[in-house]
Amino acid sequence: MNNSENGNTKESLQERKTRIILMGAGIGAVLGLISSYLYARAAEEHGETESGNVGSVSTGQILAVLVAVIGLVRQIAELGKPKKGDKRDKK
Q1: Could you give the CA distance from residue 5 to residue 26 in angstroms, rounded to a whole number?
Q2: 84 Rama sector, left if φ>0, alpha if ψ -120 to 50, beta otherwise
Q3: Which long-range contacts (CB under 8 A, 24 or more apart) does 50-55 make?
Q4: Can you spell out the DSSP letters for 26-72?
Q5: Are the C-beta atoms of 46 and 55 separated by less than 8 Å?
Q6: Residue 44 within any structural domain of the chain
Q7: The total number of structural domains that make up the chain
Q8: Which of 25, 34, 35, 67 has its CA 20 to 30 A from that of 10?
Q9: 32 occurs within a structural domain
Q10: Per the domain annotation, does 58 fall within a domain?
């Protein structure tokens, strides 16, 4: 492999990494917007916003969501790893 091919590969990998990060940021933003909308709608349906009281969230509920998010992030990170029997795993 000559230097120009190696340079093109590095650029391609950098472009791919940038595209993946931007897609992840976009998906995260959309999911955050949907989640906050659903939370606000649920609070409104239960009359909490009309009385001026914002629904309080317990520490246990926050921890449960945090554990679920960490599990999801770990699963997404595992998607990028090759499978054990994959030929790309061997050099």
Answers
A1: 31
A2: alpha
A3: none
A4: HHHHHHHHHHHHHHHHHHHHTTTTTTTPPPP--HHHHHHHHHHHHHH
A5: yes
A6: yes
A7: 1
A8: 25
A9: yes
A10: yes
Q: How confident is the model at residue 91 (pLDDT cuts 50, 70, 90)?
A: very low
pLDDT tens-digit map of 66-80: 999 999 999 999 998
Residue 21 CA to residue 13 CA, distance in Å, equals 12
Q: Is residue 91 part of a domain?
A: no
| Among 37, 33, 39, 32, residue whose Cα is nearest residue 56 | 39
Structural domain including 76 reads 3-86
Q: For 12-37, how does the pLDDT look when each residue is reduced to its tens digit (9 = 90+)?
A: 989 999 999 999 999 999 999 999 99
Supply 22's token pair: 């931007």
pLDDT at residue 52, as a whole number = 58
Per-residue model confidence (pLDDT) at position 38: 94
Termini Cα distance of the chain: 16
